[in-house]
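=== RUN LOG ===
request id: a7f3
mode: sequence -> structure
chains: 1
length: 96
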Amino acid sequence: YFDYMCDLMTFFHKPDEPYPPTKVFTREELLLLTPKVVRDWMAMKTFGKLDYGPGDKSLGARYHTLGYMKKAVSWFMPNKRPGWCDGRGNPTKSDA
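=== RESULT ===
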């Protein structure tokens, strides 16, 4: 699970080097994630771009892989139970 979380946070923060597997993300860092960040990260993993359409082909991420990525990231969210509402909760449970 942690590999996906490191990948998402690397995408979000855009550091010079990817986060190492020993990195500990704070609650405050995790609360900055939004459904748009998660969606954009998954779009980049799937299509290699943020704007995609019905005619675009996947570059490797399949339906079940995306589900696993979402599940892995959700495991680290401070507010696991509630859905996303008014900018709070778990961004992986958003309808976006």
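=== NOTES ===
The radius of gyration is 13 Å.
The chain has four helices and no strands.
=== END ===
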